Amino acid sequence: MAAASPIAVITGASSGIGAATARQLAAAGFRVVLTARRKDRIEALAAEITEAGHEATAYALDVTDRAAVDEFATAFRTLAVLVNNAGGALGADPVATGDPADWRQMYETNVIGTLNVTQALLPALTASGNGTVVILSSTAGLSTYEGGGGYVAAKHGEHVLAETLRLEIVGTPVRVIEVAPGMVKTEEFATTRFRGDAEKAAKVYAGVDAPLSADDVADTITWAITRPSHVNIDLLVVRPRAQASNSKVHRTV
Ligand SMILES: NC(=O)c1ccc[n+]([C@@H]2O[C@H](COP(=O)([O-])OP(=O)(O)OC[C@H]3O[C@@H](n4cnc5c(N)ncnc54)[C@H](OP(=O)(O)O)[C@@H]3O)[C@@H](O)[C@H]2O)c1
């Protein structure tokens, strides 16, 4: 009898980087468990992956709801991979006028969401004898930019969570991989940030020759996960060639 495929849980799998990562990890031989709040989208993606001959299931989950996360975690005795991808930005206001509610929500989703799911699934990752936690932070987790305040603060929080967890669990069979992308053109990230204002969202990528795609980032995540288990890619920073820093972007317009 063939051994069961290792399981990978992906949060925020209903769009963008999370959906692309689910497709690529499934193709790499993982049984993928797709989670996000929008059940219809993850169910449709699970059906697409299954039709392509791979293994996928969907589970509706809000990462900020600790009771729901704990309930979800009871399904896993062992787990190979957790990709903490759910997150995003809200607003681009200066610190002087930013809405504290936006800051709170970004901290809740990016930091507490990652904390909730990681804490709940760490026992299963450890029990697997070879677990991997991936944390999708951002180059916003490594340095700041004007108008980034709340998002930058939250992503710095996620970066610190990854660095601290790696120190604390060394010696256990779980590695902690942080992937920090720069500018990625996904269908929803900028639209969510600007609350549906398509014009403002389009300006983020205006004149940039080839921002990263969700597939580019999924490729780096899948590469890092599929290294031999003793190899820990601590931090992988990936940007488009046209971007030299958070605020230094070459534009043709
Ligand atoms: N795009 C970029 O330029 C960029 C750059 C660096 C890092 N990142 C990071 O990469 C990750 C993915 O970004 P993306 O560009 O793919 O964005 P996206 O297309 O907006 O996807 C965000 C995902 O997070 C999920 N999500 C949001 N809040 C959630 C919650 N409370 N519970 C569960 N799921 C939640 C959303 O699903 P539901 O709405 O269905 O719940 C969605 O699937 C984020 O952490 C983002 O901060 C993005």
UniProtKB/TrEMBL annotation:
Its EC number is 1.-.-.-. GO terms for molecular function: oxidoreductase activity. The lineage of its organism: Bacteria, Bacillati, Actinomycetota, Actinomycetes, Kitasatosporales. Keywords: Oxidoreductase. Belongs to the short-chain dehydrogenases/reductases (SDR) family. InterPro entries: SDR_fam. It is an enzyme of class 1 (oxidoreductase). This is SDR family oxidoreductase.
